[in-house]
Amino acid sequence: MTRAVVGIIGGSGVYDLPGAENVRRERVSTPWGEPSDELVFGEIGGTKAVFLPRHGRGHRLSPSSINYRANIDAMKRAGVTDLISVSACGSFKSQFFPGLFVLVDQFVDRTFARQSSFFGDGCVAHVSMAHPIAPKLSARIARAARDEGIEIAVGGTYVCMEGPQFSTYAESLHYKACGFDLIGMTAMPEAKLAREAEISYATIAMVTDFDCWHPEHDHVDVASVIQIVRENSAKAARLVGRVLKDFPQEREPCPVGSDRALDNAILTAPEARDPELLKKLDAVMSRLNAPSA
Ligand SMILES: CSC[C@H]1O[C@H](OP(=O)(O)O)[C@H](O)[C@@H]1O
Ligand SMILES: Nc1ncnc2[nH]cnc12
């Protein structure tokens, strides 16, 4: 059996994990460089939790300079099987108003200045991203929200822009016309890397603004975004706490294959693989390298 460990990556305004017990902080080194901060290990309701503030404490890191590979690799080394991402997002739909939580189910990646794979020359792999969100994890979050009386919309497409500037009016209208629901700067390549590392992934989007398409809200400003996050952070902590309290001890098989994404994904012949890259992939490929695999 694989013991379930829930990772939480906190976004803008979410720099700690209230409600955790037996807390200890540890700096975890990875072959991909330094994660955004120390990992916070703790327990909620008997479930092991590992927390990481995506931008680091004090919000030191910009979306483009976050080391997403180090963050996901560190989570993998910490034994994380299921990862909940909490993200501040702009909205393209009136029904997704500031303060509402949305369970994202699709992503569009418009980033261009980030390392987006653990794999590459010497070990080429292509994992499926058709269904980027782990449905059981997402359903657990929806159930926890219902049980806590927290309003949450289920389903939404999040477009990830490079940033750090917010969108122009024309871009905002374009994304809206494309039918996208939400916009942020960090879910990609995080979700792709989680999939490569065989970690189940789900995003709780906290709507903070209407970007700039809305006739009554003609621009985004960080102060209002952070105010919305502050007003909703206790609700987010309660939601995550409830998910953890009701979490099963054993990792559940994932219907979209998050837990076995590397099966049939690696193209490079074993004898043609680069030993240096394989060394760096020790955590990401740990299941494939385990004696029982
Ligand atoms: C503070 S507004 C822009 C900032 O907020 C979001 O961060 P996160 O996804 O980590 O909550 C957005 O992606 C930008 O990084
Ligand atoms: N409107 C917006 N665009 C990009 N990232 C965001 N994060 C919060 N609001 C955002």
Tell me what the structure shows.
The protein is an alpha/beta fold and 293 residues long. The protein has a domain at 86-289: 3-Layer(aba) Sandwich (Rossmann fold), CATH 3.40.50. The chain is 26% helix and 21% strand. Strands 1, 2, 3, 4, 5, 6, 7, 8, 9, 10 and 11 form an 11-stranded mixed beta sheet that branches. Helix 3 links the parallel strand 9 (157-160) and strand 10. It is globular, with a radius of gyration of 18 Å. The two termini are 13 Å apart.
Strand content: 15-25%
List how many beta strands DSSP finds: 11
Mean pLDDT: 97
Helix content: 25-40%
Q: Can you tell me the CATH superfamily of one domain?
A: Nucleoside phosphorylase domain
Q: Would you identify the CATH architecture of one domain?
A: 3-Layer(aba) Sandwich
State the distance separating the first and last CA atoms: 13 Å
* Uncertain spans: none
CATH topology category name of one domain? Rossmann fold
Bound molecules: ligand LNRAV4D5, adenine
DSSP helix count? Answer: 7
Q: Secondary-structure element order, as H and E?
A: EEEEHEEEHEEHEHEHHH
CATH class placement of one domain: Alpha Beta
Shape: globular
- Find the structural class using helix and strand composition: alpha/beta
Rg to the nearest angstrom? 18 Å
Largest sheet: 11 strands, mixed
